[in-house]
Write a structure and sequence with these properties.
This protein has 21 helices and twelve strands. By secondary structure, the protein is an alpha+beta fold. The radius of gyration is 24 Å and the shape is globular.
């Protein structure tokens, strides 16, 4: 009887969504008046992107003068120093231009700061100097005056601040490029956080995207960016991402969709704060307040008895499942968007960026992941093509041949710095020759995996990577084998992980039985040092 009574006292929205156990209010999807608008708003936002990012011959308005002045002030002195040979090595050159670009971004305001923040969480996708420099943009965005915050809230909610909130903290608990977040208490007593959009950010973002699209072609080959994210492609990716962040009704809908996804997958170790059913507008989002440990606070979590290895293990499985099985995943993981609660569950915050994979693209993503675990090169390349990373008319066999993907993988730690640099350059040149690019969903997913990779270093450095790959594959086979087999046209028992292939893809000998993250990091550092030493040696030789 006690268990039945406890079950009856549980908030009814836990029957369909992964939320906190103690509900400040219950969310009924049919009562959330903004929910039915979300799909239309999302389609309308994405329809804007081609016009916003189309290159133009003429400068788009007076804003371009300000942008060109700041970008020029960053790039021209760097180019002069580079031509004069004033940098000791490539790393110093990249550090200098990265610092200059970060200063320019901060001077240009919210749109460019947001771009910098996205780059800052793209370790492995962008040069390390650029990532390190733009990390300084994360927590250094000045807050809007409270008078403007009040004006936005009262305009959007149609009521005085005092009529909605019993208490409202004027100093924000976080200030980002698009919005800032304030702690508050509703008249009805619930503790909430209120996300308020910066008053002129929407207009400025649209102007800046047109300026970026005009400027990007002139920057090709002039500044260091990732090989498959040249400036025009980066602007397009950025536009696809940021346009959906400008309407909080889409974000609130994302919260409910992710909560439903987690519930459907049985991922009860992740929770979503409840958005308020009525207090959500284009520029204001009121949601349940949750408390927990910062994702970087390893000591605090461990002192509270939280298994940090389990936190990481759950994260890896949850985000893979969301993309592969449900076709939806949080698209902007970083330390500020994850709170680990005292019971060990993780609260996901900030849903402005969410990855969505439609039927065909989700199937392609599934094939990509399965191809990686079964070491099927052709399946992986075909899946990348279907995801949009390669043109649809790409000759897959030619790509495999040109990239030498069927040749025996060589342990990179056995190569000299010169050999590694030449191999990277060869692969990049071949990919660009085929018109390769990084689709939005794949970029978001890779960026998340890069974040989790770094989180392992802090939370679980002794985690056995090979054992976890095998464990995750087994969990997927048990939970989703029938679904995966049906979608791929295979019998579930025919899907078998190729651990030797997994080891080979990492440059490991099949005899290796264990690889901790700490050991993996040591291998990476050795590879990076050899490549860096070769580049610096080569540059020194050319000066003589």
């Amino acid at each position: 009887m006690a268990s039945a009574s406890a079950e009856q006292s549980r908030p009814s929205d836990l029957a369909w969504g992964s939320f906190t156990d103690e509900a400040p209010w219950v969310v009924h999807r049919e009562d959330a008046r903004w929910l039915n608008l979300a799909e239309t708003l999302r389609a309308r936002a994405q329809a804007e992107v081609p016009a916003l990012t189309a290159p133009s011959l003429l400068p788009p308005g007076v804003r371009v003068l300000t942008v060109v002045r700041h970008i020029g002030t960053a790039i021209v002195p760097w180019m002069v120093k580079k031509r004069r040979g004033q940098f000791a090595d490539t790393s110093e050159s990249r550090s200098d231009i990265s610092r200059r670009l970060r200063i320019a971004a901060e001077a240009l305001g919210p749109t460019y700061i947001k771009l910098g923040q996205i780059i800052s969480s793209g370790e492995g996708l962008f040069p390390p100097e650029l990532v390190a420099e733009f990390k300084k943009c994360r927590d250094q965005v000045p807050a809007e005056p409270f008078s403007e915050v009040r004006l936005t809230i009262e305009q959007d909610l149609g009521a005085r601040l005092e009529d909605v909130f019993e208490h409202f903290e004027e100093t924000p608990i976080a200030a980002a490029s698009i919005a800032q977040v304030h702690a508050a208490t509703l008249k009805t007593g619930e503790q909430v956080v209120v996300k308020v959009q910066r008053i002129s950010v929407s207009r400025l973002v649209h102007k800046d995207l047109r300026v970026m699209a005009w400027l990007a072609p002139y920057l090709v080959g002039r500044i260091p960016v990732a090989a498959l994210a040249n400036p025009p492609a980066l602007v397009e990716l950025f536009a696809e991402t940021i346009v959906e962040e400008l309407d909080f009704r889409m974000e609130a809908a994302n919260m409910l969709d992710v909560a439903a996804m987690l519930h459907n997958l049985g991922q009860d170790q992740y929770i979503v704060p409840r958005p308020h059913p009525r207090l959500v507008t284009k520029r204001v989002l009121v949601m349940e307040r949750v408390f927990g440990f910062n994702f970087d606070d390893v000591g605090g979590m461990q002192d509270a008895g939280i298994d940090t290895e389990q936190v990481i293990r759950t994260a890896m499985i949850a985000f893979m499942e969301g993309a592969i099985v449900e076709g939806i995943f949080h698209g902007d993981l970083h330390g500020g968007n994850l709170f680990v609660m005292e019971d060990g569950r993780t609260a996901l915050l900030d849903y402005g960026i969410v990855g969505r994979l439609s039927g065909p693209r989700r199937n392609a993503f599934l094939r990509l992941m399965m191809g990686a675990t079964t070491n099927d090169i052709r399946a992986q390349m075909a899946a990348l093509r279907d995801l949009g990373a390669l043109p649809m008319d790409t000759d897959i066999e030619a790509v495999i041949r040109d990239l030498r993907l069927e040749e025996e993988v060589v342990d990179p730690t056995t190569l000299s710095g010169e050999e590694m640099v030449k191999e990277v350059q060869r692969i990049i040149k071949a990919l660009l020759g085929y018109g390769a690019k990084l689709p939005k969903e794949l970029m978001l997913y890779v960026k998340n995996m890069v974040f989790l990779d770094g989180a392992i270093a802090r939370l679980a450095p002794d985690l056995d990577i090979l054992a976890e790959v095998a464990n995750i594959s087994m969990i997927f086979a048990q939970k989703h084998g029938a679904l995966i087999g049906r979608e791929l046209g295979l019998a579930p028992e025919a899907i078998e992980i190729d651990m030797d292939g997994v080891k080979s893809s990492m440059g490991l000998d099949p005899s290796v039985k264990q690889l901790t993250y700490r050991q993996l990091q040591q291998r990476r550092e050795l590879i990076q040092k050899r490549m860096r030493d070769h580049v610096e040696s080569d540059r020194s030789g050319s000066k003589k």
